[in-house]
Amino acid sequence: MSPSPAIEVRDLSKRFGDVEAVRGVSFTVNEGEIFGFLGPNGAGKTTTIKMLCTLLAPTSGVLRLAGHDVTKSPADVRRAIGVIFQDPSLDDRLTAEENLELHAVVYGVPRAERRARLDEALAFVDLSDRKRDLVRTFSGGMKRRLEIARGLVHRPRVLFLDEPTTGLDPQTRKATWEVLRDLRARSGLTLFLTTHYMDEAEHCDRIAIIDHGRIVAEDSPEALKRAVGKDVVFVRTNEPAALCEILAERYGLSPDRTDEGLCFRVEDGEAFVVRLISEARAPLTGIAVRRPTLDDVFLALTGRQIRNGNGEAGRLAMRAMARRR
Ligand SMILES: Nc1ncnc2c1ncn2[C@@H]1O[C@H](COP(=O)(O)OP(=O)(O)OP(=O)(O)O)[C@@H](O)[C@H]1O
């Protein structure tokens, strides 16, 4: 018999009064996979993770985790999971190892095993030499690593991370991801995370893109980008009306005017720009060609951009591109 998937979700819905936060979501996460939920603010990511972690009852649907029914056997599910939420929940007044010990006691880790488990978890995140220091003396990145260690003390099968690197600087985000990838490689742990960062989603084996409570696509980041296909080309000119005419009449393109210049999609962007300059003598003052990103995937599927890494609302300048597809 093949082992049961780490997570199985069928037709999951959650309603808060009039708000349908999650609307009929289904997906499966295999053992040892890094699976990401990518979506903008309010898409339903946290609500889904809370239902999977037994913190919120679903309105309807089936949820199974490590072979246990989440609604019927919440205690078994809690033992099988580790959870790292957005808001830090360490006790600043305790040392690193005291924080972990508290967790080990709450999770019923046998006393005889506790020391070894704590040492193992602290070594894993490279905090062994700081174990006797108060958490309030730790940097943001060290605190996040300690939270990961704490999530591992009871040896869960699935680790949930809600926006694991939100609020961390780029270097610390990178280091946190190194820890997570190493963790998966060494322990075969299943990781389920939510994110609105494109680069974070790139670390996942598979992602589900969620928007307005529904999954709009699910695949590996590479496959999703391949499906969008064409290169994105931006050209700048002092004569946009004339260039629009050339692009439309000669090449059948209808570019969008964006902050970065006229924007359109073609099969081989670089070759096309060379042709544009040589054939049409187009009056260009700037060129940018890029491969499709996950942002383009989201745009293609929803007509909107996910907010950028600074947490600002996404620009809608390229919206028309998606509408045309
Ligand atoms: N307890 C609640 N009561 C009422 N509405 C809620 C509650 N929790 C979430 N919602 C609503 O459900 C929708 C989904 O919210 P959720 O927090 O799951 O989104 P999210 O994708 O995690 O967003 P973020 O990235 O901001 O965390 C939102 O419209 C939100 O306002």
From TrEMBL:
UniProt topology in membrane: Peripheral membrane protein
Record carries keyword tRNA-binding: no
PROSITE patterns in UniProt: ABC_TRANSPORTER_1, ABC_TRANSPORTER_2
Xref: Pfam families: ABC_tran (PF00005)
GO function terms (MF aspect): ATP binding; ATP hydrolysis activity
Localization, UniProt: Cell membrane
Entries under Gene3D superfamilies matching the protein: P-loop containing nucleotide triphosphate hydrolases (3.40.50.300)
InterPro entries (UniProt xref): AAA+_ATPase, ABC_transporter-like_ATP-bd, ABC_transporter-like_CS, DrrA, P-loop_NTPase
Domain ABC transporter as annotated: residue spans: 7-237
Example GO biological process: daunorubicin transport
Keyword ATP-binding (UniProt): yes
Cleavable signal peptide: none
GO cellular component annotations of the record: plasma membrane
Assigned keywords, A-Z: ATP-binding, Cell membrane, Membrane, Nodulation, Nucleotide-binding, Translocase, Transport
Database matches in PANTHER family: LINEARMYCIN RESISTANCE ATP-BINDING PROTEIN LNRL
Similarity annotation: Belongs to the ABC transporter superfamily. Drug exporter-1 (DrugE1) (TC 3.A.1.105) family.
Protein name (Swiss-Prot/TrEMBL): ATP-binding cassette domain-containing protein
